[in-house]
Amino acid sequence: MSAFRIAHSAAVLAAVVLAVLLIAGLPARPVFAMGSNSDSSSAITGPADPDFTAGKAAIDRKDWAAAVPLFQKVVARDEKNADAFNWLGYALRNQGDYEKAFVAYNQALQINPKHRGAHEYLGEAYLKTDNLAKAEEQLKALDGLCTFGCPEYTELKNKIAAFKAAKPS
């Protein structure tokens, strides 16, 4: 069999598998929780980091005080983990430490400028500090990243609308 026929057969097989997955409603790529990002360069491909896992569980419990040191350990070991910096920023923001949250979100975006979760949460942090213009910049960035829309864009857009509605004109 020629190299062309082998490559063609492999491409046809891949297309069939993708079609079956789509028809069955199964994801064709890894699924990430809201706030993480399928475009992230730091998606876990090996065994999960136990501190990351414990940090995410703490966030799910809204235990910000437990989440912060766990994600600090993760980013100390893996300074290229955009998801960990994003979750660290999220926990810090929810503790009310906006200054450190901004640093963490910006680190996530420096690692991965397309990290939709970091753009959303950074926009939300700007709203918490009454900086509508900066929040709208993050919404604009998400608009560019989410060609056909995405949950992060919709969530931030709704929070900006609520922020504007709550402010006297």
Automatic annotation (TrEMBL):
The keyword Repeat applies. InterPro entries: TPR-like_helical_dom_sf, TPR_rpt, Ycf3/AcsC/BcsC/TPR_MFPF. SUPFAM superfamilies: TPR-like. Keywords: Repeat, TPR repeat. TPR repeats lie at residues 82-115. SMART domains: TPR (SM00028). The keyword Membrane does not apply. It holds the Pfam family TPR_16. PROSITE patterns: TPR (PS50005), TPR_REGION (PS50293). PANTHER family: CELLULOSE SYNTHASE OPERON PROTEIN C, TPR REPEAT-CONTAINING PROTEIN MJ0263. This is Tetratricopeptide repeat protein.
